[in-house]
Amino acid sequence: MIATAVPFLDVGAGYRELRDEIDAAQRRVMESGYYILGEEVEAFEREWAAAVGTAHAVGVGNGLDALSLSLRALDIGPGHEVIVPSNTYIATWLAVTAVGATPVPVEPDPKTRLIDAAGVGDAIGPRTRAILPVHLYGHPVDVAPMHQFGLPILEDAAQAHGAAQDGVAAGALGTIGAFSFYPGKNLGAYGDGGAVTTDDAELAERVRMLRNYGSRQKYVHESFGLNSRLDPLHAAVLRVKLAWLEDWNARRRDTAAFYAEHLSDLPWLQLPGTAAGAVHAWHLYAVLADDRDALAAHLADAGVQTLVHYPIPPHLSAPYADMGLDLPVAEHLADRLLSLPIGPHLGADGRARVVEAVRSFPA
Q1: Under a CB-based contact definition with an 8 Å cutoff, are residues 40 and 193 in contact?
Q2: Where are the domains positioned within the chain?
Q3: CB of 134 within 8 A of CB of 115?
Q4: For residue 275, how far is the Cα from the chain centroid?
Q5: Do residues 288 and 269 lie in contact, with contact meaning Cβ atoms separated by under 8 Å?
Q6: Fewest Cβ atoms nearer than 10 Å: which of 31, 101, 194, 355?
Q7: Which of 314, 307, 304 is closest to 292 using CA atoms?
Q8: Measured between alpha carbons, how far is residue 25 from residues 19, 32, 260 in Å?
Q9: What is the greatest pairwise CA distance in the chain?
Q10: In CATH, what number does 245-359 get?
Q11: For residue range 146-169, what is the model confidence (pLDDT) as tens digits?
């Protein structure tokens, strides 16, 4: 194997591009002497809510907490069921389990790889209390048909910063939205972080209370809350990066278009697409290949780093294996999906190297 010439994602490049702005923002926080919540977090919450198009945003500790706190704010707990996709990162399911509810998986549309309303409708039962669609890889789920079921819709928008459906941003399509700001996301902090978005003032206030030890007033605790607060240092970085989100997403779209132009003729490779009315954030560019592992090894030998999202579907992971679920579509995808580099700092040379390496695979 030769040294990696094309990394899957160069997170440090984002800092190098914005070094002066980020350093100034960090310095502002350090000099303020205010390191828990405060004005920096409140400013980011206002700016993120405006970017998403919701009335409220609440900064929390990470994306998993954003999901579980949203479920708790919706009064979902033991004895309840939540509809989830079978094809997703395990955090979606873990959030449901964390509040004592049961995840009820629905297989994705094999073409979009996303959960759809038809499958959701079939899975709803008397204990169903919410629908949890995932905007996987940055492609928004069309949740509009799901409103017919009269259930709260919690969007897992952890991979969908800047995505939209029919002119409405991910995080504003349902009742409440949950974001992660993990460093590798389209909008990433320099550590864990997350946020909840909603137009419902009561839900937002409940999340604010629950993230802070169940307290709205110091030493007055109303609930079994968490310590899950977005750090001001992360908020300051996110405020800088937010101004660049659309530009960096445009670079991702350019790379996706380049891949589509130069790889769509390969009969052994299925490329991702974009559904009508959708604005794809292209957090990941996941292709489908029967010889996925061989392709990954070939690309590694060519100096192109790839990743698998995700090799083990939630229902086959140890925490859920005893549910005995048979979810063949999720398993089919887990065995064949491979994510190619699509970060905003990949550049023209990098994506050309990727195309060259993929096309040289002896399929």
Answers
A1: no
A2: 12-242, 245-359
A3: yes
A4: 18
A5: yes
A6: 31
A7: 307
A8: 10, 11, 38
A9: 66
A10: 3.90.1150.10
A11: 999 999 999 999 999 999 999 999
